[in-house]
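Sanity check

After download, print the first record. It should look like this:
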Amino acid sequence: MRLSGEFFRARLIKRPNRFLAYVQLEGTLKEVKAHVPDPGRLIELFYPSAELVVRKEKQLDRKTAYTIVGVKSGKIWVNIQSILTNKLFEEEYKKIPFFKNYEIIRREYTYELFFPLPP
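Expected structure tokens:
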């Protein structure tokens, strides 16, 4: 999978809500708004001055000019765009011999193991 766009390192300044963060682009004093594509709390990852990778977005009508793509946790980078995980799996799973005769029919299927969902 090849990611496209213009990527920058940044530091988290603050995250006022689930989908918005203020970040400082590395090597500058510029503070910009960035979209957080994962609405989880992520308190173990998003703390002041956390290292980030952001992508500059091309759409001019957006409220934010950047999207957070990853955050550093210890020595590893963590993907924040959960949709990328599905795309990566769809592209790569047939390379695994076990899956060669399988086909993806539906993403993220909810299996009713213990609690049946109402109709």
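If your output differs, re-run the checksum step. Summary of this record's structure: The chain has a mean pLDDT of 87.
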